Amino acid sequence: MADSLQRHLEQFKNFPHEAKPHLHVEPICDYGWLVKPKRTAVALPAGKEIGLTLMGLTHGNELAGAAVINEVLAHLGAGNLALDIPVAIILGNPWAAKENRRFLERDLNRSFGRDAAKLKEEIRAKELSPILSTTACLLDLHQTTRPSDRPFFIFGYNERNYEFARAISPRLTIVTHWGKPFSSEGMCTDEYVIGKGGTGISLELGQNGFDPYQIAVGVEACLWAIRVATAELSGESIAHRAATATPDLYTWAEIMNWPVKGYVELRDGLNNFAPVNAGDSLGRCDGEPIRAGASGRILFPKYLSKADQDKLTSRPTELCRVMKAISPTDLPTIKHPAS
Ligand SMILES: [Zn+2]
């Protein structure tokens, strides 16, 4: 795994960016390329210089993102795609990836929109912020810690985000939420892009690792994202593609906090999308049962060994989330915070 990652990081760094007939390719940051068409009729919205940003390795141990990003970059570089918008291609946290860790000092995906710039990820967030703030559309690639029975989009709900996801991969499950930020710890990439007037969504491919099925899903989503972003920025409707399928749609029913004290032991088998009923025991805290407060499906369960819990300097925020299935008519009317 370390070998494949090393290969991917080198491949990304050594991407041949000499002059090409129809494209400009230039570095936009460390581990970031900007690929621009030399001529285009597509005008970006005011204040935006990048039509689409594709990001992988925002969390260092979510390795499939590096493979997806390199494959998309290779297609762009080879001129296999008719490119009409500037596309930024970024590896978010390759330094954490080299250590197969989610992050080194602070979760990069909770480090946007903050003033602090002392910790490694805070500095990286500061470096990426000008790119994301001038990005019209963002697709950020992630993987889950535990197995997932499917890939899924996840984002804060607004109509533009929803349309974007539906047009990219009409069949993929969508997990969406509204009313509160995703996490109380800091802003994610997609929330930051939305706050700057853009469209921003994340795609969870499945359990972390170089899984070829997941990589294929990610590459397909990125290629469609280029098409969909181009259509949207050209003023074409993208809704017709979404109409080809009805995906599963979920939102939180409950966010279960990590107990304030005691040794926490989740029971086996609580993978992403595992069904649970309200009152079911999800595990134990110092021997006392932890019960689901709602019925639905599990998301982002946090399993930590006794040794890992003993080592913690601060306790995790969340134990897991329980999601409920909803239908499109349950979605609120949120056009876009900036429109
Ligand atoms: Zn992630």
| Structure summary, number of beta strands | 15
Number of domains: 2
Query: On the 0-100 scale, what is the average pLDDT?
Result: 94
Instruction: State the helicity in percent bands.
Output: 25-40%
Instruction: Quote the distance from N terminus to C terminus.
Output: 44 Å
CATH domain fold name of the largest domain: Aminopeptidase
Record the strand order, biggest sheet. 1-2-4-3-5-8-6-7-9-15-14-11
Pick out the low-confidence regions: none
Walk me through what this model shows:
This protein has 339 residues and is α/β, with parallel strands linked by helices. The chain has nine helices and 15 strands. The strands form two sheets. A twelve-stranded mixed sheet has the order 1-2-4-3-5-8-6-7-9-15-14-11, with helices on both faces. A three-stranded antiparallel sheet has the order 10-12-13, with no helix packed on it. Strand 12 (281-285) and strand 13 form a beta hairpin. The longest helix is centred in the middle third of the chain and has 22 residues, at 212-233. Bound molecules: zinc ion. Zinc ion binds next to loops.
